[in-house]
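Weekly modeling sync, notes
Attendees: S.R. (lead), two postdocs, one rotation student

Agenda item 3: backlog of single-chain predictions. S.R. asked that every request posted to the team notebook include the full sequence so nobody has to chase files. The rotation student volunteered to paste the first one in as an example of the format we agreed on. Action items at the bottom.

Example entry:
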Amino acid sequence: MRFYNSRSGSADAPTFLGDLIDTLTERGRALLGRKGDRDAIPQLDLIALSELLLSRRGEASGVALAQALLASYDSASSADRISFLQALADRFGPDRRQVERAIEAVRKDEGTDALEALHAAAEPQRQELFRRLNLAPGGTGALIRMREELGGHIKGNPGLRCVDADFAHLFSSWFNRGFLVLRPIDWTTPANILEKIIRYEAVHAIQNWDDLRNRLQPEDRRCYGFFHPQLVDEPLIFVEVALTKEIPGAIGPLLDLGRTPIGASEATTAVFYSISNTQKGLGGVSFGNFLIKQVVENLKRELPNLKTFVTLSPVPGFAAWLARERKTEESACLDGASKEILDILDQPAWSDDLDMVEKVRDVLLSATAYYFLKAKDSKGRPVDPVARFHLGNGARLERLNFLGDVSAKGLKQSHGLMVNYLYALDEIEKNHEAFAEKGTIAASPMIRKALRADLPSRDLVPAP
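Predicted structure, as returned to the notebook:
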């Protein structure tokens, strides 16, 4: 049901919307505090509500309108939501005339007032709209979901990128590290949060509650998550940690339900074996680097016996990259003999055949070393996204683990390869600066030795 369309300007629109605002304002915070009233708000024109919300100065009416808009968006059809997202791009950008006047004022006036006026004029109206929507109860979560939906339409409609950029700009401030709270997650954590840990785990799927208990309850296991005050029961990112006596080379033993736990005081190594972002709508807002650093500090304080901090990480894009190299006539890292050996990877259950495993091991590890040390994407960065994350945080590429993950997923995405990134606390800053400034990859001699010296010298064509 539509009561108003800003494009057609139906005659009863001002009266109806004025009455609606007055009613909601009178009921004020009492109405907003009752969950059932949200469903009672009728379906309204999203664009008209947005224009009204931007025009209102009163706090109570503004919050009520924001709530009405979010409720209408939530119950709108898919086509209407897409039209609204398109309108955000087309109709709620900067006012071009105001920007031109502000530019002209800057040319005539060297003072800071003119510059500030230009800055204000250049800000898209949708940013202010998002700020006002954020004031509604549940507004933060609703905006995150809105951006997630927006992301699904950008590929087919690049004009929406400006809206996505505005979301990213605001979220980077709203989810600043200063607002985030690090909380331990264990077997005593409320069930509604534990259910989300099961659902959001993105690296090594949690099969059931017994699997979850094995990752949270034993003395040699830890889990931490970042939470935001507006999303108190919603972890934004979480990391799972195993306390061990050595650097592990395979994920299976860490997740084995039948393993024998060790005492936390016996451990010398903290292993970050899974990091999962939970909110697609917060893509591009970095939490992981802060999370790892704070977890390291917490663990050092709690367990001074820990000396080594390392990851056991997947290599999600390796199999696809290697497939392209195997098809390339003049590969930068594979000659004809290597390609013939790698045909083994096309055999079913090759990882269960010891002869095949031994034949393919050295060639595969050499290609992996090239993948990490030489292969670049179109922007000149390491092609592997997990590598970019950890190297950017100052970690060192420490060890390649052949058949470290023999699950179906591990074999499919990386031919079973895993890698350890070492967070050597006295080298993190130096490694970070070298990577950020020069693209230098900190790697152990073991990995550099795996790189064949007789490979062609030409650079690898950037991966798509």
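Discussion: group reviewed the output briefly. The first strand starts at residue 181 and ends at 184.
Action items: rotation student to repeat for the remaining queue; S.R. to check formatting next week.
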